[in-house]
Amino acid sequence: MSAPARPAVALVHPGDIDTPSGGYAYDRRILAGLKAQGFDVLPLSLKGGFPFPTTDEIGAALAALAATPSGTVLLADGLALGALPGEALRRLGRPVVALVHHPLALETGLSEEVAARLLESEAGALAAAAAVIAVSPETRRMLVERYGVPPEKITLALPGTAPAARVPADGQSPRLIAVGSLTPRKGYGVLLDALDRLRDLEWTLTIVGSPDFEPETAREIAARAAGFGPRIRLAGALHVAALDEAYAAADIFVHPSFYEGYGMVLAEALRRGLPVICTTGGAAGETVPDGAGLKVAPGDAEALGVALRALLVDPPRRRAMADAAFAAGTALPDWSDTVAVISRVLMEVAER
């Protein structure tokens, strides 16, 4: 008996799929993996100011979705899908599979009014989807508890991690690295508050992340970082080879985020054997095993400073956590596992 035909798939995303962020990196990996499995899959970019599109931009997005060949499965990134009206999605006559990295309404810094509007819009779009893919148990819980998505409708597809060599993590003057766009949710202001308490210790910090998503926040971070002189370097967004070099030159990975749907950079740090200091915001606390790092409540600069000091002054403890991080990192799924899960969902939806 021949294998079922693979459906045509449009991977729907807002803007440029090469945007330097964890969510877009996930999408790029899935796009490549589905192609390797023989799917007829193409990226479909929706233009406009997602996740806050204008009425005209919503109309153009729906027209682009309707223009896909009949029977195409729309694998839609939640950053775009959550802003589209559920009833209009149903009228497309094409099955929609929602891919949710981070619920829009949970973004840090939103007003109550905007968060409520996004929650309503996302809930409607998710109700219209034939299936939902969540990237972490935390995201799955939020979709059930906050958005009313039936648990049986959700499939968990953890991000994969690419193979990576273990880094030395043995600098005499500890080198910190933080990776993530310069946005309010990433908590860099809290990190700088914590480091202000540690001027008596030797350390340097490299922050890797794009300043383009929230320029005002990026300017504030840059102004504050300048007060630390050469101790803090803002490296901007780095592509793969340069990011690998930055990881290799680090001794401790620090992630002060208020909330993470998964935290792919945490997995990247574990895979390389970097001890981690992170918050318990969202999925971050689940992504990092207890022995591989120290965890503090999000937004608590004092606790973050205490955790940083504990590792900065204790090389043997750093080494033990590095060993645990590397062991945990080698047990993480790779991208072929992630693609296999999503492939199965697409086939099931297409066959209904």
Strand order of the largest sheet: 2-1-3-4-5-6
CATH architecture term of the largest domain: 3-Layer(aba) Sandwich
**CATH homologous superfamily of the largest domain - what is it?**
Glycogen Phosphorylase B
Total DSSP E strands: 12
Biggest sheet: strands, sense, closure?
6 strands, parallel
Number of distinct helices: 14
C-alpha-based Rg, rounded: 21 Å
Low-confidence stretches: none
Query: Which percent band covers the strand fraction?
Result: 15-25%
> What is the number of domains?
2
Helix share of residues?
A: 40-55%
Q: Give the distance, in angstroms, between the N- and C-terminal Cα atoms.
A: 19 Å
CATH topology label of the largest domain: Rossmann fold
Q: If you average the pLDDT, what whole number results? A: 95
Shape: globular
Order of helices and strands: EHEHEHHEHEHEEHEHEHEHEHEHHH
Question: Explain this structure to me?
Answer:
It is a single chain. With 352 residues, this protein is α/β, with parallel strands linked by helices. It folds into 2 domains: 8-160 and 334-350, Glycogen Phosphorylase B (Rossmann fold, 3-Layer(aba) Sandwich); 175-330, 3-Layer(aba) Sandwich (Rossmann fold), CATH 3.40.50.2000. The chain contains 14 helices and 12 strands. It has helices at residues 22-36, 55-66, 78-81, 86-90, 112-128, 137-145, 188-196, 215-226, 240-248, 264-272, 284-287, 301-312, 315-330, 335-350, and strands spanning 8-14, 40-46, 73-77, 96-100, 131-134, 154-156, 175-179, 204-208, 232-236, 252-255, 276-279, 293-296. The strands form 2 sheets. A 6-stranded parallel sheet has the order 2-1-3-4-5-6, with helices on both faces. β10 (252-255), α10 (264-272) and β11 form a beta-alpha-beta unit. The longest helix is centred in the middle third of the chain and has 17 residues, at 112-128. The mean pLDDT is 95.
